Amino acid sequence: MSTMTHKERQKVGRLLAIKLLNNNVPEDAPEWQKVRDLLCGKKEKKANKRPAKVNGTKKRQLEAIKKRKQIYPRLIEQGYANWQIGAKLGICRSVVSHDLMRFGLQAHQRYHWRATNTATKNTGYYINASSLQADTRIVKALWRIDRKAVVGPWLIERGCWYQDSQGNWYEAPK
């Protein structure tokens, strides 16, 4: 019985039940126990792939979360992205994202283009090339710009910048 699949046990159980019903065997007879075992699916337990829980694991997890809660604001203020924070702490990016949502924190928005008007000295930061083109009315193919380029009165730079909580702009750490 232990080498049968679930479907095979069900089939054998039904056949045995039909045989007992045809012979008018009473319900409290011991023969019915085998039918119940087969039909009710006493399944073999699968090998547990997870290691057994260690005492104090939950406590250690909570301590680690509490420690990360203190570290996150400093790393966010330094301009690190979620994947960089994860690499520094030795955890995966999705854990960092989950923790930041849990604590009500958010990493800084990254801006990948900076345009400075050399005539007026005004600087703008842009998330993507299309928003840069819309604001500066530049029609040149910006994806050809490697790091810096001068287009008309504009100095266009490609990189990664973020704005801190005081409104100051910084180049993001690599």
Characterization of this structure:
Helix content is 43%, strand content 16%. It contains six helices and five strands, in the order αααααββαβββ. The chain has helices at residues 6-22, 31-39, 57-77, 82-89, 93-103, 129-136, and strands at 111-117, 123-126, 148-151, 154-163, 169-171. Strands 1, 2, 3, 4 and 5 form a five-stranded antiparallel sheet that branches. Helix 1 runs antiparallel to helix 2 and helix 4 (82-89) crosses helix 5 (93-103). The model has no long low-confidence stretch (mean pLDDT 84).
Summed up:
The two termini are 61 Å apart. The protein contains 6 helices and 5 strands.
Topology:
Elements: H1 6-22, H2 31-39, H3 57-77, H4 82-89, H5 93-103, E1 111-117, E2 123-126, H6 129-136, E3 148-151, E4 154-163, E5 169-171
Antiparallel strand pairs: 1-2, 1-4, 3-4, 4-5
Helix pairs in contact: 1-2, 4-5
Give the ordered list of helices and strands: HHHHHEEHEEE
| Radius of gyration using CA atoms only | 33 Å
The main β sheet shows up as: 5 strands, antiparallel
* Mean pLDDT metric: 84
Overall morphology: elongated
> How many H/I helical runs?
6
Oligomerization state of this entry? single chain
**In angstroms, what separates the terminal alpha carbons?**
61 Å
- Strand portion, in percent? 15-25%
- Please tally the β strands and state the result: 5
**Which structural class best describes the helix and strand composition?**
alpha+beta
Poorly predicted residue ranges: none
